[in-house]
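quick one before i forget lol
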Amino acid sequence: MTLSDRHPHVNGGADAIEDSLLPLDHGDTYVCQDGPRGAPVLLLVHGSATSSRSWDTLVPLLTTSHRVIRIDLPGHGRSAEPVGGDYAVPEQGRRIGAALDRLGVGRAIVVGHSSGGYVATALAEQRPDLVTALVLINTGPSMDAFIAPESAAINPAQWPPADDQIRRFASTGFRAGHPVPQELVDELRGMSYRAVTAAMQASTTYLKQHALPDRLTALGKPLQVIFGDQDRRWRSSSAADYRVVPDARVELLPGAGHTPILEEPVRTAALLLSFAEAHTAHAPRTA
């Protein structure tokens, strides 16, 4: 499938849902676009061991005012594993930048969930002209904030894992008692063991090199941080670490876990849209 092989799902008009598989030099990259094509762009970047489908509940709340673009990271969802096996966070950021160039996107507010926030930050570091502002949702600021999992990691000899193994592995991605959606279970089972582990290790490496608040302070981009106060992967109190970034907005969502984009989509969307309205740049499309 090439850039021209696009598949509108709704009426085929300017507001249609459209997906494409972009043939980039480091592997085919899946892109999904929703909302009016002439509207300001929100780019949504998912976390490790999931895909662009993790945004499905949130997207309809954003498309009344924005063109929403989702991209599957390398080895996730419908994107190919990277040529040469390079999952480094800066390389993932470069890959997203190349995809946006192919789509003719000149400016975007970039939203990252969990480790997707590291890729969003890397993109802004490489392409400050492209990134208008950043929104980080339950993105750990440093390894000091990480909560070590109680359950053992999945054995590579048992890959692909069974549904119950995946649910145990993914359960801390949600507040206690919240079910792990079957769609996400299926997505993780469809990944290779290397894709899951290499992407997670790449995030850890990126964060150990420099804490995220330090990177963001150097960037000088408008920043909003949204954090569920029931996160079981990162200490929710660590959201305050981002307050060292000048003029950063930091919001705690009471009752939400690590994935408020699925647990509390209405409240998450309201915060995101309020921030986006203040920092949106209307730029003409080139493609």
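fyi DSSP finds eight helices and nine strands in the chain.
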